[in-house]
Amino acid sequence: MQLLVYLPLLIPALAAIAARPLAARLEPREATWLLTAATVVLAGCSTVALALLVASLVTKVIALWRLRHLMSVSTREVLPWRGLAVIVAAAVIAGLVSTTVSAQPHLPAIVRMALASVIYAITYGALGLWWGVWSVAPYWAVVRQRIFRAGEPVAPVDTIVTEPREAASHDR
Q1: Number of domains in the chain
Q2: Do 40 and 98 have their domain in common?
Q3: pTM of the model
Q4: Tens digits of per-residue pLDDT, 29-69?
Q5: In the list 3, 102, 124, 164, which could disulfide-bond 116, CB 3.0-4.6 Å?
Q6: How far is it between the farthest Cα atoms of the chain?
Q7: Is 151 part of a structural domain of the chain?
C-alpha cells in the first residue's frame, strides 16, 4: 500500500520526460492543447497522491490512538519520538548540505545531481550512526560469523550473541 501511494507521483515525471519531444513534433495549437490537458491530468494525479498520503496518515494516527488506549500508556510512550526527531533532523541537515553542493553553477547538471545524491546519502548515514539511531554492530556480527565459522549455520541477526563462543558454552 505504501508504495502504491507514490504511483500517481510517477506519472508527472514520465509526462515531463515526454513533453518536450511531443511538443516539438506537433503543431503549436495541438501541442498547447495536449500540454494543457496533460497539466490537468497531472494535477489530478498529484491530488490523488496527496489524498492517499493524508488517508494513510489519518489511519496511522487512529491506530496509534487506539493502541495508546489499549495499552493504557501516554502518547509519549507509544512511539520512539527521540529516534523519529533524530531521523528528521538528519534528513534536514543532509538535505541542506546536498543543496549547497547542488547549487554550484560551474558544474554540469548531471554531475551536480550525482554529487548531491552521494553527499546526501553519506551525510544522512553518518549522522544516523553518530547520533545512534541505528547500529552496524549486528551486521558486522553476521559478517564475522560467516567468515570465522564458515561451516556452521548462520544465526539470524536478532539471535546473535555478542560474547565469545567459549564463554557461552561454559554457561550451559
Answers
A1: 3
A2: no
A3: 0.48
A4: 887 888 788 888 888 878 888 888 899 889 988 998 898 88
A5: 102
A6: 84
A7: yes
